[in-house]
Every structure is written in C-alpha cells, then in structure tokens.
Amino acid sequence: MAHFGYNLRNHFVKAYNSGYLPEQDGHKIFFQEIGNPKGQPVICFHGGPGSGAKVSYAYSYNLKKYRVIIFDQRGCGKSEYKDAFKNNTIQKTAEDANRLLDYLNIKTKVVVSGCSWGSTCALFFSETYPKRVKRIIVNAIFLGRKKDAEYLTPIIPLFYPDMWDELKQIADKEHPDNYFGKLLFSNKHADQQKAMKYYKSLESQTSDGALSYTFDGREYTDKEIQKFRVFMHYQMNDFFMKENQILQNAKKIADIPVEIYQDRWDPCCPMYQAYDLHKTLSKSRLHIIPVFGHVHEDMFWKMYQDNLNDYKK
Fold it and tell me: Most buried by CB count within 10 Å: which residue of 104, 262, 285, 308?
C-alpha cells in the first residue's frame, strides 16, 4: 500500500514536449520532456544497450520541481537512423546528450541520471562534461569492465553452468559470444531466430534470476531482434571503453554529489560494482535496497522519497 499513491500518479504523467535533434552522423535522436518546464533540469540515460527511454523514468522525481529530459539513444526506440550501428558508441551517446542540452537552451547545471547501462552512460557523460553537472543519481550500477560483462552477467558460470554448457555445445568449438553474435547479425531469418532463442534467453533469464531455464520456440519480432543487436554491438566491442575507464576517470567527478542506489541482490548488475564506485568516489552516498531483482520498484520508491526530501531541507 505504501506505493499506491506513487503508482497511481504514474498513470497521469505525460510528456509536455517531444521532438528530434537535428540529424548527425546519420542519426536523429528522439527526446521527450516531463515535469516543470522551469524546474531543475534532469537528463536521464536509458538502459540496455538497446532499450528505449520511458516516461516512467521521470516517476522518481518531484515533477513540480524537476524538468526531466529523456531520449532514445542511437539505434533505439523512436530514434531514426540510416545505419543503426555506424557511429553508435558511448562517446556518441554522451555527445548527443550534450547536443540535446544545447538544443533545449539549458545553460544551468543539470542532474544526470541513469539506471543499469544508463548508469554507465550517466557516469561517462559526467566525466566527459563535468562542468555541466550539478548532481549525479545512478542506480543498478554497471561499470562495463571485462569481469562485469563476462558471459553477459557474472552470475552465469556460478549459478547457470548447465545452461552455459548447453550453449557451448550448440556453438560446437566456437565461443558462444562469437557464434551467436554472427547468427544474430546474419541476413537469414532462421539464424536470427536461433540466436534469439538461445542467446537472448540466456541474457533475459539470467538477468531476472530465473530459478530454472527454458529455451522457448516463439517467434521474435524485428523490433526485439534490433534491440538485442544493439546490445551485442556494444557487448562485442567492450562497450567502446578502455578497461576500467569509468573508475580511472572518476577523479573528474570527485567533487560532484553522487547518489548511488543498488538492490542488494541484483543478478544482472551485482552489487560489487556499486560498492566499487562508492569506494572510488569518497563523497558519494550508497543506498542499499534490501530486495532481490534488477531495477526493482522499491529502488524507485526510495529515490522518489529522497528527491522529495531534498526539497524539504
């Protein structure tokens, strides 16, 4: 019942402005604005890679006080492109966010927010443009290091060795990342469906912490295939970052207030990453949510309450 008012309010939240950034590098970025047009600007980065922005990202903010800006990254959601993968890197995502703030004529410092892969982008943006950042709010932390991304999530060899072994047998002598990656980017429909049936199932079920696994035979849509292709585009390119780049560049945001929210047991983005970030940023605050799940509702409820309280001080 504690979340009833929070959830009810979500049904009435609508964007007051939307549009496209002028084309750059063959991409047109779709954006939306929610909340108070004269409020404190917040720019939110969505997860994935490959997912799209949702108006629900604004639910964690007092929309009488905040101006929340969301956008679909390259190759995602309603953003348009000539080639989804060309010029599609985390560097370009940060550049697009910076262009968007300029396009909206935002000259004041902004709150930067992101969840899961969005936390990676939010931290990367803040380290690239620290003078634009007032505060950072990130949750379900993903740092993009090799140990963070191995086998899509570090829990697979620990808790799903049978699932992983089955995929290795299907891939024969090739590493499943390479084998299913090639199938996913094949021009043959059957190859794409096979990659989704096995490799997407691996990603989805282990991220959710499924207690058992199945490889279903349903038909995946072109949209679902496209989302996972973007994910694999980043996965196969080490997320376009140097090893441990986020933490090595953390000194650039050392004096910016950082709020870190993390579910205690997150199968997709295990808590050690949030803790590593917190230890590196001595002025950060780590909020541990004692629940199981990736991007759990309790996390957003806690963020919402904290953001309300900030304006009561």
Answer: 262
How do the domains of the chain map onto residue ranges?
A: 4-144+241-310, 149-239
310 is catalytic: no
Q: In what order do the strands lie in the sheet with 285-292?
A: 15-20, 30-35, 66-71, 40-45, 110-115, 133-139, 258-265, 285-292
- Cα–Cα distance, 224 to 195 (Å, whole number): 12
- Expressed in angstroms, the distance from the first to the final Cα of the chain is 26
Q: What is the CA radius of gyration of the chain?
A: 19
Please confirm, yes or no, whether 201 is among the known catalytic residues: no
Q: Which of 13, 53, 61, 62 is nearest to 31 (CA)?
A: 53
Q: What pLDDT sits at residue 144?
A: 96
What fold characterizes domain 4-144+241-310?
A: Rossmann fold (3.40.50)
Task: Give the active site residue among 116, 119, 126, 207.
Answer: 116
Lowest mean pLDDT among 11-15, 135-139, 243-247, 250-254: 11-15
d(CA 94, CA 127) in angstroms, rounded, equals 10
Q: Is 10 exposed, middle or buried (0-12, 13-18, 19+ CB in 10 A)?
A: middle
The amino acid sitting at 87 is N
DSSP 253: G
Q: Are 279 and 30 in contact (CB under 8 A)?
A: no
266 included as an active-site residue: yes
Whole-structure pTM over 0.85, yes or no? yes
Can you tell me the distance from the alpha carbon of 61 to that of 65, in angstroms, rounded to the nearest whole number? Answer: 8
* Phi, psi for 129 (deg, rounded to 5): -130, 60
Catalytic residue (one of 72, 96, 148, 266): 266
Tell whether the model's pLDDT for residue 303 goes beyond 80.
no
* pLDDT band, very low/low/confident/very high, at 77 (cuts 50, 70, 90): very high
